[in-house]
Model the fold of this input.
Amino acid sequence: MNEFKQKYGPWALITGASSGIGMEFARQIAEKGLNLVLVARREDRLKTLAEELRGKHSIDVKIIGADLSGDDFLPILKKATSNLEIGLLINNAGLTTTGTVIDNTLEDELNLLHVNCRAPLMLAHEFGKQMRDRKRGGMIFLGSLLSFASVPYWANYAASKSYDLMLAEGLAAEMKEHNVDVLALCPGFVRTEFAEFAKLNDLMAMNVQPVVSLALRKLGKSRAAIPGIMNKLNALSTRLQPRFLNSLIFGLVVRPTQKLNH
Done:
């Protein structure tokens, strides 16, 4: 048994696995020999991915159609995984809104918080207890380069990703004595459906494969991972500049995208 599987297997649960970073996590974790629980709203995509990974890697794959913005998703996941040993949790699912907060619907902004903040907390609480009792396991939270600054026109999204980063780093300290590793992955723009939705310039984006590969390499070695040299420099700059200047700079970058979307 390889070291990664021994530490984080035999099952990994990945939210938002139907596309983008979540799908790439599924592919790279499958290569390491772990069985997968794939969670997303789009079950048809999960079925296609599950067939691909079963055939290619001879692993077990379970799919769960669930909406993490709803009140009833956790009992569904608990029932579906009651006889499985989840050793790795990938809190990847996320929503975004764009534009000014008061011009978006309150329902959309609350759904964003439910998926980006409430659901990762609930899943970490549920499966983290199991990992603590087994004295092994790992969790990865999807933060963002925007975790490090307030961002006009993506204000609620950036705030939610700051929460994910702070929660992951705090949990990493709490869980260390139990041999459970926790990491916040904080990418910049990545070539995914999210980037297409936000109409981001493709030249600004990274490919998804190295982003996920870095997270899996850094798990257990760091509390946060920022893919890409420019993203690392940008994150560092947010620590050195006044917060109002960070907000101004990010706002200048994001504002053209919100104009395109409205």
In short: The chain has ten helices and seven strands.
